[in-house]
Please model this.
Amino acid sequence: MGNQFQELMMQRCLQLAKNGLGTTYPNPLVGSVITVDDKIIGEGWHYQSGLPHAEVNAIHAVQDQSLLKKSTLYVNLEPCSHFGKTPPCSHKIVEMGIPKVVIGTRDWASHVKGKGIEYLLNHGVEVIENVLKDESLYINKRFFTFHQKKRPYIILKWAETMDGYFAPADRKQQWITGKYTKQLVHQWRTQEQAIMIGGETVRADNPQLNARLWHGHDPIKVILSNQIKPGANICMLKENKTLIFNHKESLAENENEWLKMDDKLNPINEVIDQLYAKGIQSLIVEGGKKILDQFIDMNLWDEARVLTGSTIWNKGIKAPQLTNYKLLKKNKISLDSCTIYVNNIT
Model:
């Protein structure tokens, strides 16, 4: 079976890793499988920061621990080698006598960066790297973008009519897509750490920016506006913290924080830099059009999710136009469609 079996097991690791989407921040998504004689004897994934990592969960799932001494452990990301909230997985692998480890990709975070593999090799463990490497890199696109580009992974999201309109001319809220698409958007919100809009969207829509239609964590709200004051409706919602970037004041009110920006700096860049400093690995930008256009003009985005409804308006505010993009996939959602693009340059 050879390479084919290794790829099959790595696919299972990736499948397991996805179970942690939205709950493992700041840690990456990791799944692990342990086999003996081409049969799975244990598997696990990382649930949440501070809890055991995928490799440890897979080891604990093996009923007959004596089998570990002739097993192969598969994992989509290099086992850690540092002491953090939990002990190093590479040390645990050596301690349990596991003789072979198959890895999807190296962990390029500065505190790991090959050290886990080095530890395994130095203790006589056979290591095979780069099995389904591209898939292993993609599943942790947020984690790798944060550590390599020093910014969050940025997702642009908007809805538009079939004839390409983003909002009515009077800017009053008007739904473009149906209830199933709305539920999908709320699922997306549980998967990202922060969600961003501008002051115009706050005034026009008074959005909650939470995930009330899907079970999971609410993202941190990020607002770019000089007009949001303490006591505003969007700040009264207790489900998730609000960061208000402005040029007037710095203060804190309950879980909300006003962050004064430097007038001499580009506000979008300053928001992104401060989110990085706060350890936020992913950001959904939901509008309005002015902010979306700024991210596009600056080529500061990684992924765009465009939801197209079945309605035709014939007039209104035109939807944003992407440049430098590559189509990733397109799906139907009842009468709507979802098209996902990736940035062809970043």
In short: The chain has a mean pLDDT of 92. Residues 296 and 323 are 7 Å apart (CA to CA). The chain is about 30% helix and 25% strand. The radius of gyration is 22 Å.
